[in-house]
Amino acid sequence: MIDIQKIREDFPILHQNINGKPLVYFDNAATSQKPKVVIDAISAYYNTINSNIHRGVHTLSQKATDAYELSRQKIQHFINAQHSHEVIFTRGTTESINLVAAGFAQLLKKGDEVIISYLEHHSNIVPWQLACEKSGAMLKVIPINEKGELLMDVFEKLLSETTKIVAVNHISNSLGTINPIAEIIEKAHQFGAAVLIDGAQATPHLKVNVQELDCDFYCSSAHKMCGPTGVGFLYGKTEWLEKLPPYQGGGEMIATVTFEKTTYATLPHKFEAGTPNIEGGIVFATAIDYLNSIGLENIAAYEQELLRYGTEKLSQIEGIKFYGTAQHKTSVIAFNIGNIHPYDIGTIIDKLGIAVRTGHHCTQPIMDFYKIPGTIRASFAFYNTKEEIDLLIEALKKATIMLS
Length: 404
Ligand code: C6P
What we know:
Blueprint: H1 4-9, E1 17-18, E2 21-22, E3 24-25, H2 36-48, H3 59-79, E4 87-90, H4 93-107, E5 113-117, H5 126-135, E6 138-142, H6 152-158, E7 163-169, H7 181-190, E8 194-198, H8 210-213, E9 217-221, E10 232-236, H9 238-243, E11 254-257, E12 262-264, H10 278-294, H11 296-315, E13 320-323, E14 332-337, H12 342-351, E15 354-355, E16 357-359, H13 364-370, E17 375-379, H14 386-403
Parallel strand pairs: 3-15, 5-6, 5-7, 7-8, 8-9
Antiparallel strand pairs: 1-2, 4-10, 9-10, 11-12, 13-14, 14-17, 16-17
Bound molecules: ligand C6P.
């Protein structure tokens, strides 16, 4: 059991009025709020050990390097990777996917196929389109049903010896669907295809075990996990990371450089050119410690309770239509009310202190599937409460009256 009121004390931002009303933050799928330990760790870094890493003989640089590498190990253990060199620091999920897709662009050839799904965020669509354009490979898409679940029988038919990589999200950011990734990975491996899992919406909410899943790549962003923005990770199996070409060239990713030939550094440095987001990388570990202190199982159980409560309460609103009613889903509720444009509702409830996201949520194909311009998306985190859901309902009722 978690003590929500105590947890809420950890988040300074939650205790303020927005537009004269207490803030209700339901835009957690876009980015999570940060606990004080994370905010303090950022200033502690700059107050005590700020310096460049992997470069200096001096003590500060060594301290910063140690903290950065310790954070890599924290991420390794958080996702149960076998080796810390299988964890590459990136700017976030988007960069992680681009890194893999750019590498595959060089490995793929005409006749090869890449499979993604209808549920993907644009950052798991566009990099693969670019890779296919460059290589001549073909992009295939797993369709969905009305509930927002992948059609697994069609997926099986799409798979063949020509499938080289399957890239799907663990959890849909727009609908909350939890995809059957263990099954996807197993089926793809039967055809020798690699599998990349976009875990941006999963790592904040449930325990991930990359060895058990046996995925080839897994990625996520710190900012959705109570950590800072501008940092994330790419997990890759050693053999795949060895096989992929470097993503960017520059300092720290080399072994030797001459004008004739450059040789590359060993993993993970081969993929970490230039000065990284040092403070972000280090503080990522603080965020992981914080999530672990609450417990992913506790977080998942409480958020499911909020999902049940929210769905039941919202169902009472006249004219509401939900998008994404999968059997297995996280605490994301996407909906529209009557013919009112989601943006109009979002704007009015913001005046009442409530933060939700409206629009296509960087998933235009899902909106096209439902033939809508966008949705209102309320996404709950473990620091939200049922009382806040009640405030959302009240605000929605007011907005509906004003806009009808
Ligand atoms: N989704 C949302 O409001 P970055 O921006 O690189 O940290 O994450 C991109 C990304 C990739 N995949 C999924 C499933 C995601 O949800 C996101 C980010 C946010 O839904 C911002 S668009």
